[in-house]
Design a protein that fits this description.
4-stranded mixed β-sheet, 400 residues, mainly alpha, 61% helix, single chain
Protein backbone atom coordinates (compact mmCIF):
# COMPACT_ATOMS: atom_id res chain seq x y z
CA UNK A 1 0.00 0.00 0.00
CA UNK A 2 1.35 3.39 -0.94
CA UNK A 3 2.62 5.64 1.80
CA UNK A 4 0.35 8.45 2.96
CA UNK A 5 1.51 12.04 2.62
CA UNK A 6 -0.39 14.90 4.20
CA UNK A 7 -3.30 14.95 6.62
CA UNK A 8 -6.16 14.26 4.21
CA UNK A 9 -4.21 11.59 2.34
CA UNK A 10 -3.56 9.93 5.68
CA UNK A 11 -7.28 10.00 6.52
CA UNK A 12 -8.14 8.33 3.22
CA UNK A 13 -5.38 5.78 3.78
CA UNK A 14 -6.80 4.97 7.22
CA UNK A 15 -10.23 4.35 5.72
CA UNK A 16 -8.78 1.89 3.22
CA UNK A 17 -6.86 0.17 5.99
CA UNK A 18 -10.03 -0.09 8.10
CA UNK A 19 -11.74 -1.95 5.25
CA UNK A 20 -8.68 -4.17 4.81
CA UNK A 21 -8.72 -4.93 8.55
CA UNK A 22 -12.37 -5.96 8.39
CA UNK A 23 -11.64 -8.32 5.50
CA UNK A 24 -8.57 -9.59 7.33
CA UNK A 25 -10.71 -10.27 10.40
CA UNK A 26 -12.94 -12.69 8.50
CA UNK A 27 -9.96 -14.35 6.80
CA UNK A 28 -8.18 -14.94 10.13
CA UNK A 29 -11.39 -16.26 11.68
CA UNK A 30 -11.70 -18.81 8.86
CA UNK A 31 -8.07 -19.80 9.44
CA UNK A 32 -8.86 -20.37 13.11
CA UNK A 33 -12.00 -22.40 12.28
CA UNK A 34 -10.02 -24.60 9.87
CA UNK A 35 -7.30 -25.13 12.50
CA UNK A 36 -9.91 -26.09 15.07
CA UNK A 37 -11.59 -28.50 12.64
CA UNK A 38 -8.22 -30.08 11.84
CA UNK A 39 -7.52 -30.69 15.52
CA UNK A 40 -11.01 -32.11 16.05
CA UNK A 41 -10.64 -34.52 13.13
CA UNK A 42 -7.21 -35.58 14.40
CA UNK A 43 -8.44 -36.48 17.88
CA UNK A 44 -11.74 -38.05 16.82
CA UNK A 45 -10.68 -40.41 14.04
CA UNK A 46 -7.58 -42.33 13.07
CA UNK A 47 -6.46 -41.41 9.54
CA UNK A 48 -3.55 -40.21 7.50
CA UNK A 49 -2.69 -36.51 7.13
CA UNK A 50 -4.14 -36.02 3.59
CA UNK A 51 -7.49 -37.43 4.67
CA UNK A 52 -7.54 -35.24 7.81
CA UNK A 53 -6.78 -32.11 5.77
CA UNK A 54 -9.65 -32.87 3.38
CA UNK A 55 -12.02 -33.63 6.25
CA UNK A 56 -11.12 -30.35 7.99
CA UNK A 57 -11.78 -28.47 4.72
CA UNK A 58 -15.26 -30.02 4.50
CA UNK A 59 -15.87 -29.00 8.12
CA UNK A 60 -14.79 -25.42 7.29
CA UNK A 61 -17.23 -25.20 4.38
CA UNK A 62 -20.03 -26.37 6.65
CA UNK A 63 -19.06 -24.05 9.51
CA UNK A 64 -18.21 -20.93 7.45
CA UNK A 65 -21.74 -19.42 7.48
CA UNK A 66 -21.97 -19.88 11.25
CA UNK A 67 -18.49 -18.44 11.79
CA UNK A 68 -19.43 -15.45 9.62
CA UNK A 69 -22.60 -14.83 11.64
CA UNK A 70 -20.74 -15.14 14.94
CA UNK A 71 -18.04 -12.72 13.78
CA UNK A 72 -20.63 -10.23 12.52
CA UNK A 73 -22.40 -10.43 15.87
CA UNK A 74 -19.09 -9.79 17.63
CA UNK A 75 -18.54 -6.73 15.41
CA UNK A 76 -22.06 -5.44 16.12
CA UNK A 77 -21.58 -5.78 19.87
CA UNK A 78 -18.25 -3.96 19.66
CA UNK A 79 -19.75 -1.23 17.46
CA UNK A 80 -22.60 -0.40 19.82
CA UNK A 81 -21.07 -1.13 23.21
CA UNK A 82 -17.30 -0.53 22.89
CA UNK A 83 -17.51 2.89 24.54
CA UNK A 84 -19.63 1.55 27.40
CA UNK A 85 -17.11 -1.23 27.98
CA UNK A 86 -14.21 1.26 27.99
CA UNK A 87 -16.02 3.51 30.47
CA UNK A 88 -16.74 0.50 32.69
CA UNK A 89 -13.03 -0.40 32.73
CA UNK A 90 -11.74 3.14 33.34
CA UNK A 91 -14.57 4.55 35.44
CA UNK A 92 -14.58 7.73 33.31
CA UNK A 93 -17.61 10.00 33.36
CA UNK A 94 -18.80 12.62 30.90
CA UNK A 95 -18.40 16.26 32.00
CA UNK A 96 -20.00 19.52 30.89
CA UNK A 97 -18.78 23.09 30.68
CA UNK A 98 -20.26 23.77 34.13
CA UNK A 99 -18.32 20.90 35.71
CA UNK A 100 -15.00 21.42 33.89
CA UNK A 101 -15.01 24.92 32.36
CA UNK A 102 -11.24 25.07 31.83
CA UNK A 103 -11.05 21.71 30.03
CA UNK A 104 -14.28 22.17 28.10
CA UNK A 105 -13.30 25.60 26.77
CA UNK A 106 -9.89 24.38 25.62
CA UNK A 107 -11.40 21.54 23.60
CA UNK A 108 -14.24 23.67 22.25
CA UNK A 109 -11.84 26.37 21.02
CA UNK A 110 -9.74 23.78 19.19
CA UNK A 111 -12.81 22.31 17.51
CA UNK A 112 -14.15 25.73 16.51
CA UNK A 113 -10.81 26.79 15.07
CA UNK A 114 -10.89 23.91 12.57
CA UNK A 115 -14.62 23.38 12.16
CA UNK A 116 -14.48 19.96 13.84
CA UNK A 117 -17.56 18.48 15.57
CA UNK A 118 -16.83 18.43 19.27
CA UNK A 119 -16.47 14.94 20.78
CA UNK A 120 -17.73 14.05 24.22
CA UNK A 121 -15.42 15.07 27.04
CA UNK A 122 -14.77 12.66 29.91
CA UNK A 123 -12.64 12.74 33.05
CA UNK A 124 -11.12 9.69 34.73
CA UNK A 125 -10.31 9.92 38.45
CA UNK A 126 -6.73 8.65 38.39
CA UNK A 127 -3.42 10.19 39.55
CA UNK A 128 -1.67 8.99 36.39
CA UNK A 129 -0.92 11.55 33.66
CA UNK A 130 -2.61 10.33 30.50
CA UNK A 131 -5.45 10.80 28.03
CA UNK A 132 -7.03 8.86 25.18
CA UNK A 133 -9.62 9.13 22.43
CA UNK A 134 -12.16 6.39 21.72
CA UNK A 135 -15.26 5.61 19.66
CA UNK A 136 -16.21 4.19 16.27
CA UNK A 137 -18.40 6.94 14.83
CA UNK A 138 -19.22 10.62 15.22
CA UNK A 139 -21.85 9.98 17.89
CA UNK A 140 -19.47 7.87 19.97
CA UNK A 141 -16.21 9.81 19.73
CA UNK A 142 -14.94 10.99 23.09
CA UNK A 143 -11.73 12.26 24.68
CA UNK A 144 -10.91 11.12 28.21
CA UNK A 145 -8.31 12.78 30.43
CA UNK A 146 -7.16 11.87 33.93
CA UNK A 147 -7.37 14.11 36.97
CA UNK A 148 -3.62 13.69 37.37
CA UNK A 149 -3.03 15.22 33.95
CA UNK A 150 -5.30 18.16 34.73
CA UNK A 151 -3.47 18.75 38.00
CA UNK A 152 0.06 18.86 36.59
CA UNK A 153 -0.28 20.45 33.14
CA UNK A 154 -0.95 24.12 32.45
CA UNK A 155 -3.48 25.35 29.90
CA UNK A 156 -1.11 25.30 26.91
CA UNK A 157 0.04 21.75 27.71
CA UNK A 158 -3.49 20.44 28.26
CA UNK A 159 -4.46 22.06 24.97
CA UNK A 160 -1.59 20.24 23.23
CA UNK A 161 -2.75 16.89 24.64
CA UNK A 162 -6.33 17.59 23.54
CA UNK A 163 -5.01 18.49 20.08
CA UNK A 164 -3.12 15.18 19.98
CA UNK A 165 -6.26 13.17 20.75
CA UNK A 166 -8.42 15.29 18.46
CA UNK A 167 -5.98 14.50 15.64
CA UNK A 168 -6.45 10.78 16.28
CA UNK A 169 -10.18 11.30 15.71
CA UNK A 170 -9.65 13.47 12.61
CA UNK A 171 -7.24 10.98 11.09
CA UNK A 172 -9.47 7.96 11.68
CA UNK A 173 -6.86 6.40 13.98
CA UNK A 174 -9.39 5.73 16.74
CA UNK A 175 -11.75 3.77 14.52
CA UNK A 176 -8.92 1.77 12.99
CA UNK A 177 -7.38 0.91 16.36
CA UNK A 178 -10.71 -0.29 17.75
CA UNK A 179 -11.15 -2.53 14.71
CA UNK A 180 -7.63 -3.90 15.19
CA UNK A 181 -8.40 -4.62 18.85
CA UNK A 182 -11.56 -6.46 17.78
CA UNK A 183 -9.49 -8.58 15.39
CA UNK A 184 -7.06 -9.50 18.15
CA UNK A 185 -9.98 -10.22 20.50
CA UNK A 186 -11.62 -12.63 18.06
CA UNK A 187 -8.33 -14.39 17.33
CA UNK A 188 -7.43 -14.57 21.02
CA UNK A 189 -10.85 -16.05 21.85
CA UNK A 190 -10.57 -18.78 19.22
CA UNK A 191 -6.94 -19.48 20.13
CA UNK A 192 -7.77 -19.98 23.79
CA UNK A 193 -10.74 -22.17 22.88
CA UNK A 194 -8.65 -24.41 20.63
CA UNK A 195 -5.73 -24.68 23.05
CA UNK A 196 -8.06 -25.62 25.88
CA UNK A 197 -9.57 -28.33 23.68
CA UNK A 198 -6.13 -29.70 22.80
CA UNK A 199 -4.43 -29.65 26.18
CA UNK A 200 -7.42 -30.51 28.37
CA UNK A 201 -9.14 -33.10 26.17
CA UNK A 202 -6.87 -33.98 23.29
CA UNK A 203 -4.58 -36.47 24.97
CA UNK A 204 -7.43 -38.18 26.77
CA UNK A 205 -9.37 -38.57 23.52
CA UNK A 206 -6.28 -39.84 21.74
CA UNK A 207 -5.64 -42.42 24.45
CA UNK A 208 -9.25 -43.66 24.38
CA UNK A 209 -9.24 -43.96 20.61
CA UNK A 210 -6.01 -45.96 20.73
CA UNK A 211 -7.32 -48.51 23.20
CA UNK A 212 -10.64 -49.02 21.40
CA UNK A 213 -9.20 -49.81 18.00
CA UNK A 214 -6.07 -51.78 18.65
CA UNK A 215 -6.30 -53.90 15.52
CA UNK A 216 -7.71 -51.31 13.17
CA UNK A 217 -6.95 -49.53 9.99
CA UNK A 218 -3.72 -49.42 8.03
CA UNK A 219 -3.42 -45.66 8.67
CA UNK A 220 -2.81 -46.21 12.40
CA UNK A 221 0.69 -45.39 13.62
CA UNK A 222 1.58 -43.30 10.57
CA UNK A 223 1.52 -40.05 12.53
CA UNK A 224 -1.31 -38.37 10.64
CA UNK A 225 -3.09 -37.13 13.76
CA UNK A 226 0.05 -35.79 15.44
CA UNK A 227 1.19 -33.93 12.32
CA UNK A 228 -2.31 -32.47 11.83
CA UNK A 229 -2.30 -31.09 15.37
CA UNK A 230 1.15 -29.55 14.85
CA UNK A 231 -0.01 -27.86 11.61
CA UNK A 232 -3.16 -26.55 13.30
CA UNK A 233 -1.25 -25.10 16.25
CA UNK A 234 1.19 -23.43 13.85
CA UNK A 235 -1.72 -21.88 11.95
CA UNK A 236 -3.24 -20.55 15.18
CA UNK A 237 0.10 -19.08 16.28
CA UNK A 238 0.63 -17.36 12.91
CA UNK A 239 -2.89 -15.91 12.93
CA UNK A 240 -2.42 -14.56 16.46
CA UNK A 241 0.97 -13.06 15.60
CA UNK A 242 -0.46 -11.40 12.48
CA UNK A 243 -3.30 -9.80 14.43
CA UNK A 244 -0.88 -8.60 17.12
CA UNK A 245 1.59 -7.24 14.58
CA UNK A 246 -1.20 -5.25 12.90
CA UNK A 247 -2.14 -3.63 16.21
CA UNK A 248 1.39 -2.66 17.18
CA UNK A 249 2.44 -1.38 13.75
CA UNK A 250 -0.62 0.85 13.50
CA UNK A 251 -0.15 2.19 17.04
CA UNK A 252 3.50 3.19 16.65
CA UNK A 253 3.07 5.16 13.44
CA UNK A 254 -0.04 7.03 14.45
CA UNK A 255 1.61 8.70 17.47
CA UNK A 256 4.08 10.70 15.36
CA UNK A 257 1.25 11.94 13.16
CA UNK A 258 -0.90 12.85 16.16
CA UNK A 259 1.96 14.88 17.69
CA UNK A 260 2.35 16.76 14.41
CA UNK A 261 -1.41 17.27 14.21
CA UNK A 262 -1.43 18.75 17.71
CA UNK A 263 1.22 21.28 16.71
CA UNK A 264 -0.73 22.08 13.56
CA UNK A 265 -3.81 22.81 15.69
CA UNK A 266 -2.17 24.74 18.55
CA UNK A 267 0.85 26.33 16.77
CA UNK A 268 2.82 25.55 19.95
CA UNK A 269 5.40 22.74 19.66
CA UNK A 270 6.98 23.63 23.00
CA UNK A 271 3.69 22.88 24.81
CA UNK A 272 3.50 19.43 23.21
CA UNK A 273 7.10 18.70 24.22
CA UNK A 274 6.52 19.87 27.80
CA UNK A 275 3.35 17.76 28.01
CA UNK A 276 5.25 14.67 26.83
CA UNK A 277 8.04 15.30 29.35
CA UNK A 278 5.55 15.56 32.21
CA UNK A 279 3.61 12.49 31.07
CA UNK A 280 6.85 10.49 30.60
CA UNK A 281 6.91 7.52 33.00
CA UNK A 282 3.73 8.69 34.76
CA UNK A 283 1.00 7.33 32.48
CA UNK A 284 0.25 3.87 33.90
CA UNK A 285 -3.51 3.45 34.42
CA UNK A 286 -3.98 0.87 37.15
CA UNK A 287 -6.54 -1.75 36.18
CA UNK A 288 -6.78 -0.63 32.54
CA UNK A 289 -6.60 -3.31 29.86
CA UNK A 290 -3.83 -3.36 27.27
CA UNK A 291 -6.36 -2.24 24.65
CA UNK A 292 -7.10 0.94 26.62
CA UNK A 293 -3.40 1.64 27.19
CA UNK A 294 -2.78 1.39 23.44
CA UNK A 295 -5.14 4.33 22.91
CA UNK A 296 -3.39 6.59 25.43
CA UNK A 297 -0.99 9.47 24.75
CA UNK A 298 1.78 7.31 26.19
CA UNK A 299 1.84 3.61 27.00
CA UNK A 300 4.56 2.79 29.57
CA UNK A 301 3.92 -0.95 29.15
CA UNK A 302 6.72 -1.99 26.80
CA UNK A 303 7.72 -5.36 25.43
CA UNK A 304 11.24 -6.71 25.21
CA UNK A 305 13.55 -4.74 22.91
CA UNK A 306 10.54 -2.57 21.92
CA UNK A 307 9.36 -5.44 19.70
CA UNK A 308 5.90 -5.33 21.25
CA UNK A 309 5.84 -1.63 22.17
CA UNK A 310 2.67 0.10 21.01
CA UNK A 311 4.14 3.61 21.16
CA UNK A 312 7.45 5.08 20.03
CA UNK A 313 9.59 6.30 22.91
CA UNK A 314 9.10 9.79 24.30
CA UNK A 315 12.66 10.61 23.24
CA UNK A 316 11.95 9.73 19.59
CA UNK A 317 8.73 11.71 19.56
CA UNK A 318 10.38 14.78 21.06
CA UNK A 319 13.28 14.47 18.64
CA UNK A 320 10.81 14.52 15.75
CA UNK A 321 9.09 17.62 17.16
CA UNK A 322 12.42 19.40 17.50
CA UNK A 323 13.54 18.43 14.01
CA UNK A 324 10.34 19.21 12.12
CA UNK A 325 8.50 21.73 14.32
CA UNK A 326 11.31 23.76 15.86
CA UNK A 327 10.40 22.86 19.44
CA UNK A 328 12.71 23.03 22.46
CA UNK A 329 13.36 20.19 24.87
CA UNK A 330 13.90 20.93 28.58
CA UNK A 331 14.91 17.32 29.24
CA UNK A 332 13.32 14.94 31.78
CA UNK A 333 11.28 16.73 34.46
CA UNK A 334 10.64 16.16 38.15
CA UNK A 335 7.07 16.92 39.16
CA UNK A 336 5.72 17.80 42.62
CA UNK A 337 3.96 15.11 44.61
CA UNK A 338 0.56 16.64 43.87
CA UNK A 339 -0.77 18.99 41.24
CA UNK A 340 -2.45 21.52 43.53
CA UNK A 341 0.14 24.18 42.76
CA UNK A 342 0.57 23.38 39.10
CA UNK A 343 -0.91 26.58 37.66
CA UNK A 344 1.41 29.59 37.77
CA UNK A 345 4.47 27.66 39.00
CA UNK A 346 4.17 25.30 36.03
CA UNK A 347 4.25 28.24 33.63
CA UNK A 348 7.36 29.60 35.37
CA UNK A 349 9.06 26.20 35.13
CA UNK A 350 8.20 26.06 31.44
CA UNK A 351 9.64 29.50 30.78
CA UNK A 352 12.84 28.76 32.73
CA UNK A 353 13.35 25.40 30.98
CA UNK A 354 12.88 26.98 27.58
CA UNK A 355 15.26 29.81 28.50
CA UNK A 356 17.96 27.29 29.50
CA UNK A 357 17.50 25.46 26.21
CA UNK A 358 17.86 28.77 24.36
CA UNK A 359 21.12 29.61 26.16
CA UNK A 360 22.68 26.38 24.92
CA UNK A 361 23.01 28.03 21.51
CA UNK A 362 21.24 25.41 19.44
CA UNK A 363 19.99 27.05 16.25
CA UNK A 364 16.28 26.45 15.65
CA UNK A 365 15.61 24.13 12.72
CA UNK A 366 13.41 25.10 9.84
CA UNK A 367 9.74 24.68 10.81
CA UNK A 368 7.51 22.29 8.89
CA UNK A 369 4.55 24.69 9.09
CA UNK A 370 4.37 28.45 8.35
CA UNK A 371 4.42 30.84 11.29
CA UNK A 372 1.00 31.79 12.57
CA UNK A 373 -0.19 33.64 15.70
CA UNK A 374 -0.33 31.24 18.65
CA UNK A 375 -3.68 30.34 20.18
CA UNK A 376 -3.79 32.04 23.60
CA UNK A 377 -6.30 30.46 25.96
CA UNK A 378 -7.14 31.10 29.57
CA UNK A 379 -5.58 34.57 29.68
CA UNK A 380 -1.98 35.56 30.23
CA UNK A 381 1.03 35.32 27.97
CA UNK A 382 2.14 31.85 26.87
CA UNK A 383 5.32 30.46 28.33
CA UNK A 384 8.46 31.78 26.70
CA UNK A 385 6.90 35.04 25.35
CA UNK A 386 9.40 37.97 25.21
CA UNK A 387 9.08 41.06 27.35
CA UNK A 388 7.24 44.15 26.19
CA UNK A 389 9.07 46.03 23.46
CA UNK A 390 10.92 42.99 22.13
CA UNK A 391 10.09 41.69 18.63
CA UNK A 392 7.42 38.99 18.78
CA UNK A 393 8.69 35.61 17.54
CA UNK A 394 6.66 33.16 15.48
CA UNK A 395 5.29 30.08 17.26
CA UNK A 396 8.07 27.86 15.80
CA UNK A 397 11.05 30.17 16.35
CA UNK A 398 13.09 31.36 19.31
CA UNK A 399 13.89 34.81 20.49
CA UNK A 400 17.40 35.72 19.60
Amino acid sequence: MAAAFGLYTHIQSNRRRSIALLLGLFFLVYVMVYAGALIAEAVIQDAGLPYLLRAAWRDLLWAAPWATLATAAWMAIAYWFNQSMIDAVTGAGEVTRKEQPRLYNLLENLCISRGIPMPKLKVMDDPALNAFASGLNQKQYSITVTTGLLGHLNDQEVEAVLGHELTHIRNGDVRMLVIAVIIAGVIGFFAELVFRMVFQNGFRWSSGRSSSSSGGSSDRGKGGGGMAIIIAIAMIAVAWLLSTAIRFALSRRREFLADAGSVELTKNPDAMIMALRKIEGRGELEGATSAVMEMCVDNPREGFADLFATHPSIERRIKALIEFAGGRDPGPLDLPADGDQAGESQQQDTAEAQGDAHQQGNAPPKPFLPSQPPVVLGGGAPAGQPEAGAPAPGPWSRTG
